[in-house]
Automatic annotation (TrEMBL):
Keyword Secreted: no
Highest taxon of source: Bacteria
Stretches assigned to coiled coil: none
Keyword vocabulary terms for this entry: Hydrolase
Signal peptide extent: none
Organism this protein belongs to: Streptomyces longisporus
Protein name: Amidohydrolase-related domain-containing protein
SUPFAM superfamilies in alphabetical order: Composite domain of metallo-dependent hydrolases (SSF51338)
């Protein structure tokens, strides 16, 4: 961490952290953000005099990275148009889930490939 002014310093918060082996934990500390990236999770005393464009008192809060939902329903292209117009619960319980349970890997692969942009 440098002594240059930070964009954001959040102190007094519980910080969600992970290591290079993707183990997750919580630390009661401070987070320093520069250029949209968490540069450091450190003791609040270490950033007490650090200049920052914005400071947030995070007591009672959790600071964590933004979550990005990367899941897709690409393989579901194989079921496109199946039983349209049904109420959602009926569509899932009586059509989609029973059909899904009988699909084979080849069908899932076709669905993924068919939904990819060309």
């Amino acid at each position: 961490m440098t002594d240059a002014p930070a964009d954001l310093v959040i102190t007094g918060c519980t910080v969600l952290v992970h290591d290079d082996q993707e183990r997750v934990g919580f630390e009661e500390d401070a987070a320093v953000v520069r250029d949209g990236v968490v540069e450091a999770v450190t003791a609040a005393s270490a950033v007490q005099h650090l200049a920052a464009a914005e400071r947030i008192d995070g007591r009672g809060q959790v600071a964590m990275p933004g979550l990005i939902n990367c899941h897709t329903h690409a393989p579901m292209v194989a079921l496109r148009g199946v039983a349209e117009g049904l109420p959602t619960e009926e569509w899932f319980n009586e059509v989609v889930w029973p059909v899904e349970s009988n699909l084979i890997e080849k069908t899932w692969s076709w669905g993924r490939g068919s939904s990819a942009p060309r």
